[in-house]
Amino acid sequence: xxxxxxxxxxxxxxxxxxxxxxxxxxxxxxxxxxxxxxxxxxxxxxxxxxxxxxxxxxxxxxxxxxxxxxxxxxxxxxxxxxxxxxxxxxxxxxxxxxxxxxxxxxxxxxxxxxxxxxxxxxxxxxxxxxxxxxxxxxxxxxxxxxxxxxxxxxxxxxxxxxxxxxxxxxxxxxxxxxxxxxxxxxxxxxxxxxxxxxxxxxxxxxxxxxxxxxxxxxxxxxxxxxxxxxxxxxxxxxxxxxxxxxxxxxxxxxxxxxxxxxxxxxxxxxxxxxxxxxxxxxxxxxxxxxxxxxxxxxxxxxxxxxxxxxxxxxxxxxxxxxxxxxxxxxxxxxxxxxxxxxxxxxxxxxxxxxxxxxxxxxxxxxxxx
Length: 369
Hints:
The structure is a single chain. With 369 residues, the protein is α/β, with parallel strands linked by helices. The chain contains 16 helices and ten strands. The strands form three sheets. Strands 3-1-2-4 form a four-stranded mixed beta sheet. A four-stranded mixed beta sheet has the order 7-6-5-8, with helices on both faces. A two-stranded parallel ribbon has the order 9-10. Strand 1 and strand 2 (49-51) form a beta hairpin. Helix 4 (92-109) packs across helix 5 and helix 14 crosses helix 15. The radius of gyration is 26 Å and the shape is globular. It starts with 5 loop residues before the first helix and ends in a 6-residue tail after the last helix. The model is unreliable at 1-12 (pLDDT under 50).
């Protein structure tokens, strides 16, 4: 039997501590970083448990820590799951995303918007907790999501040729007056105008040049509705005409040129942000994806799978990619920040080289004076 003296034991402990402190995973444990959850687990020899990186338990001493790639590896080594962070269960963020996705499906399937109490009962949690979780996951309240879903139904029926009255009742409105009180906010124009394809809607536009090539900026009365990038200014104008075939397109005045200048400055120095109103036109799902994209900080990227998880639809990776491809507001809705799971660049509506250039600009040093 080999006897290890106390002094040697101390040296062994010091060596392990140094190794753990040098491991980048230790920084995630110290920061209790939820983004690291699922990437690895750590065990504590003095307690016999293993945890997620985000566990709120008291920080262990580094000499007592080991890292494992999976929960199964930790349990095979003889450690039991922590009762606080429950690393053997689905991550809390994914549980919340799945619950919110379930509530979204309930709202979408309902003929009339369900009450918050009814939704909470179906989810098995309190109304307060549901309201907080739903807003954190989607950026809107259940009531606002239901309103957006109902607006989507109205738009779909109007686009299919239904009368305004039929569209109103098919979307779950109980009276014409209630719909007309909300119609301008929901559709951005009178229902008959929308049914006619937004004919004569005024959209101002201008084309400029920057280091990324030709840039077309267009805006409606509600805000920026298109930012196109390319190499041919005439082609960009034709794309705008195709996107708004019934609108009245007109060149911008001096005031509009100032707005275009702000967009061009933003494209050159995207880390400063773009504080301009946007006129977002898309389905409820697309707008969920776009809102989540706008919350990704400059200098950061994420995968399509991660973006799908953030909106509570982890299995809708292809639909998320489709929503990114449907984005017509380049950089303002930063779909260039979405990459493949391995970090490589995927397709981009305005060219992979522009995508690479934007990511490099955002990941460089800040451009603030």
